[in-house]
């Protein structure tokens, strides 16, 4: 990969001395969906798929960026004195947002770069290619100029850049999983306190299989913000009688006893999902410790049904892919993963059945939807970093 990147760099910007290489993964969430911005728990992990960068320093204030994934877009250029969101800069707004965030926080960016990006995360599949490129730019700036910035601060900066510079009101899960990922581990993150613990995914004989619906995500951003608003309205109703700061503060039993406080029926279902899903994420991490795989399968099923019926962020394609997986004899559990409205599912599959699973689930999905799914056996990797002799 690095040799290839070097070649692309040379053909785009010419041969340069002292190239440095960086990598940031994509992420997949095992469970705990739409809980991050509700002060709940998530249980994601970093993938070995991700985004690579080859970087050469410049001695002026110019940043030139090229992505091998968007060849037709050509080289994007900006000046460090004038970093602004520009629609025509398209993908390059993500790294620009992180540069801007550094500057806003008083971390100087003394000179520019020539950078080539190249990634192997499928675009728009909900595996966080955007958070990946944000963290990638973050580690570049950290490594060259600001080693005092720790990984958690980078994560927060990347999320803030996405919220304010890009204008997508996401929670912290994606940036956290990508910044803090650890090989063979998922992480149980409390999104309210940012306390976290790694959980070894020590499931011998089992594989994590990601399946991409290849359904283009539609309306995802606006519906995402609507869900946030609905949860917030439900919280305000609950706060009339309960001393809580987020939906992550309530246990399912307390929610059931008080859900009548929520006036609007839709908002009540949204909040129910957030509360129960938070509980499922905590329980799943616990079940991994106990090696209680069957229980994990049930929790994944409940999670999907709740996202389908109460949170309403699945779509026929996600449902078909999950239903087909549930019927396969080699499956422990399966659910949609990420924001929803398209994107991917995650399944736990017995090793010996992986090929058969891909074949049969893929065929059935195609029969039902006319779409061809892509499958990846997930490999859980490290977080964003400079590649030195790797
Ligand atoms: C997107 C957001 C995350 C999270 C998930 C849903 O990936 O970026 O912050 O809210 O959706 O769990």
Automatic annotation (TrEMBL):
Localization (cell): Cytoplasm
Domain GHMP kinase N-terminal: 93-182
Protein name: Galactokinase
Domain GHMP kinase C-terminal: 288-352
Domain Galactokinase N-terminal stretches: 9-56
Superkingdom classification of source: Bacteria
BP GO annotations: galactose metabolic process
Organism: Bacillus inaquosorum KCTC 13429
Organism placement in taxonomy: Bacteria, Bacillati, Bacillota, Bacilli, Bacillales
NCBIfam families listed in its UniProt record: gal_kin, PRK05322.1
Gene name per UniProt: galK
Membership in a protein family: Belongs to the GHMP kinase family. GalK subfamily.
Name of one Pfam family that matches: GHMP_kinases_C
Positions in coiled-coil regions: none
Catalytic activity: alpha-D-galactose + ATP = alpha-D-galactose 1-phosphate + ADP + H(+)
